[in-house]
Amino acid sequence: MRSRLAVACLVAAIVLGCTEGSDDSSAVSITSSTIVEIFSVEGQSATVDFNASASWTVSCSADWLSCSPAKGEAGHHTLKLMTTQTNRTKNTRKAQLTITSGHSYKTVTVIQGAEYAVFDQKNYTISPEGGSLVLNFKSNLGSSAPLSIAYSMGNWFRFSNGSPFTRATEWEGSTYEIIFQPNTSAEGRTAAFCLLTTDDNNTRLGLDTAYVYQPGKEGDYASTDYSADGKVSVIQRATAGKGIPVVLMGDGFADKDIADSTYYRVLAKTVENLFSEEPVKSLRHYFDVYSVTAVSKNRSVGSNFSTVFSCIPDYNSTNIEFDEDKVNEYTKKVSGVSMEKVLVIVIVNSDSWHGVTSMYTDPVSGTPLQHSICLFAISNQIDSEAFRQVIVHEAIGHGLGKLADEYGYEENGAITDNAARQLKWVQRYGWMLNVDTSADSSKVQWASFIGNSHFENERIGVYEGGYTYDKGVYRPSEESMMRSNESPFNAPSRKIIYDKVMSLGEGRSASTIDEFVAFDEEHKPERWNYSTGTTRTLAPWQRRSLRLAPPIMKYLP
């Protein structure tokens, strides 16, 4: 008999059925265990092993379960199953997978359990002067399966009992009182609290998340010296090629930040981080880098403050609103820079986790341009790994390489027809070539990388999820800089960036796979993390903190 905890959690069992088609039943045979247990929260996985004597396809009857790959040729195969939604129906539910080869088929029945815990309220606001809150929730786990709370990093709140565990009854529960300190800064801040349980392997599973926002107090400081505003400086000149233009500027930096060189230290660290990942680490000499000094009235960003570029971080996402015309005005202060080709970087004086890139097409013809504007916050401090990651992801990944994000959101589901059409259209011009709507390993954009021994340690293949959609879009690797920011660019993305630098810097056409391998052999990333466990088992607030806002494509036809 299963333990009471396991029963209380209603563990989902995947029962592998052996239903056969009427003809040629040997064409498909299930070779894995017939029963696999899995919890019913989003992001839980299982596998199904089978043999097929001919080409095959698989279909799924439910939208809360993904299955990849969707088709293949004869041979031994492993299907990867992934729950894409938490079951909040209070009842178990079933999905049926059908593996078909010729006239033969076998079915797999997936039974998802119904354990859940849901906050009564998703968003709270606490006064800048501080205060306390108790977060209430509903749960069917009962007191035999106590929930704990995971929370975002911060030293401005604490639990009254010093413990992140909850007080839970059979159906209702609450956190212990959370005490919030006064916010003495001018900037607002957000804390995330996630209800957690554990599976049979003692792995923490996130069930629901609530957010607490605390506004900042309006600052008293205002700049008086604007003499340095608009000053252009040359940070580096290209020593090879035509010189790929990069222009840096900051928002929310006052005159005192200019006077004590804080502004210029931030810009210097930004440039160091910009060229910290391959392949641009070895191609830095192709770039012209400039800075423009922007003196803001206030030292903080947001709707209550006056800054040059009017940057406002969105605390319900990682997006940043800004004054595009003003950014372009300051960019044009750099003499001779082409507005159709320049990469503009705006560093926002905020310690939050925010970043977004605007990518542009010609407003008349719709033809994609190289011009991009990348905005990101300092993210805790300029020496942090988080700051380096957001720069590389936004400026090199999106801004220079025109890469797509390699993650999907549960709520987005399968890619829409319109999104697929736009993706195909921009790919004609070399954008978003690191994702594909095809699951066929012989036809995806990176087909030449699959099976290439030079990239063996990166496990290049076809993985479902990308372009912010969970289904219908595929990416080259489980992990990458464009997925969680915690790994280098995968090999197909490195080639895209390499080709972009060679095209802009020397006018070269795209390299062959052999030409790129010759370069990559000398300049491969020093580390590679292809673990699947680190991102899929994170709580929702942790996944949100890793995944930056998708690029905004302006003037698409």
What features would you describe in this structure?
This protein has three domains: 4-112, Immunoglobulin-like, CATH 2.60.40; 117-214, Immunoglobulin-like; 219-557, Collagenase (Catalytic Domain) (3-Layer(aba) Sandwich). The N and C termini lie far apart (61 Å). The strands form eight sheets. The protein has a seven-stranded mixed β-sheet. Strands 3-1-10-9-5-7 form a six-stranded antiparallel β-sheet, with no helix packed on it. Strands 2-4-8-6 form a four-stranded antiparallel β-sheet, with no helix packed on it. A hairpin with a 6-residue loop joins strand 25 and strand 26 (320-321). It is flat, with a radius of gyration of 26 Å. Residues 1-25 and 530-546 have low confidence and may be disordered. The protein has 557 residues and is of the alpha+beta class. It has ten helices and 33 strands. 17% of the residues lie in helices and 32% in strands.
List keywords for this structure.
alpha+beta; Collagenase (Catalytic Domain); flat; 557 residues; disordered N terminus; 3 domains; Immunoglobulin-like; 6-stranded antiparallel sheet
List the topology elements.
Elements: H1 4-8, E1 12-15, E2 28-30, E3 35-38, E4 45-52, E5 56-60, E6 65-68, E7 71-72, E8 75-83, E9 93-101, E10 104-112, E11 117-119, E12 123-125, E13 131-133, E14 136-139, E15 148-151, E16 157-159, E17 166-168, E18 172-175, E19 178-180, E20 189-198, E21 204-214, E22 232-236, E23 244-251, H2 255-259, H3 262-274, E24 287-292, E25 312-313, E26 320-321, H4 324-331, E27 343-348, E28 355-361, E29 368-377, H5 385-400, E30 408-414, H6 417-427, E31 463-466, E32 468-475, H7 491-506, H8 513-522, H9 533-536, H10 540-546, E33 552-554
Parallel strand pairs: 12-21, 23-24, 23-27, 27-29, 28-33, 30-32
Antiparallel strand pairs: 1-3, 1-10, 2-4, 4-8, 5-7, 5-9, 6-8, 9-10, 11-14, 13-19, 14-18, 15-20, 16-19, 17-18, 20-21, 22-24, 25-26, 28-29, 31-32
